[in-house]
Design brief:
Structural class: alpha/beta
Oligomer: single chain
Strand order of the largest sheet: 6-5-4-7
Helix content: 25-40%
Number of helices: 6
Length: 171
């Protein structure tokens, strides 16, 4: 791999590299946890809005409506049978729409964990909204279900987050 650039056209520090064999180019720089937190609290929604993508909490919930239906249907078809009063953690859950649908279908308590305070402000009252780092968050008790809906591609360290999920999940 050879470096092509260390900043993008907006002056953002990011390493662009290219493979000499296949000419594939990709961004090499990974955000730190603090950098990721800053990005999702202060940059992400403005960026998606400028690209004409879903950005407001209402648009997020509308976008998630169909997806939530499919998550609940999948859980029902898979035989998911949590204990009464079980706990659902939604890591990267944004406005909590998907967690709310799952918690309602199974009478679970729900906690939505995200960095984006502007999205967490719209989490339904039946859920608990927590602004926290997904890689270090410790729930009040072990969860019976952990959701990572449309979240993996936003994580600075997938392995660390998945390991954290295992430590938060009931046997």
């Amino acid at each position: 791999f050879v470096p092509l650039s260390s900043t993008d056209r907006y002056g953002y520090t990011v390493d662009l590299v290219q493979c000499l064999l296949c000419e594939h180019r990709y961004l090499k720089t990974q955000l730190t946890t603090a950098g990721t937190q800053h990005f999702y609290q202060h940059v992400y929604r403005d960026l998606t809005r400028s690209l004409g993508l879903v950005s407001s909490p209402e648009e997020i919930q509308q976008d998630q409506r169909h997806y939530a239906f499919h998550v609940v249907t999948f859980l029902q078809q898979s035989g998911f049978d949590p204990p009464d009063g079980g706990l659902c953690l939604d890591f990267g859950g944004s406005t909590g729409f998907i967690a709310a649908a799952v918690c309602k279908a199974y009478q679970l308590q729900g906690i939505v964990v995200d960095w984006a305070t502007n999205a967490l402000a719209h989490v339904p009252p039946l859920l608990t909204a927590v602004e926290a780092d997904l890689t270090t968050y410790q729930p009040p008790r072990l969860a019976d279900l952990i959701l990572l809906c449309r979240t993996i591609d936003h994580l600075p360290n997938v392995t660390q987050t998945l390991h954290q999920c295992l430590t938060c999940l009931a046997p």
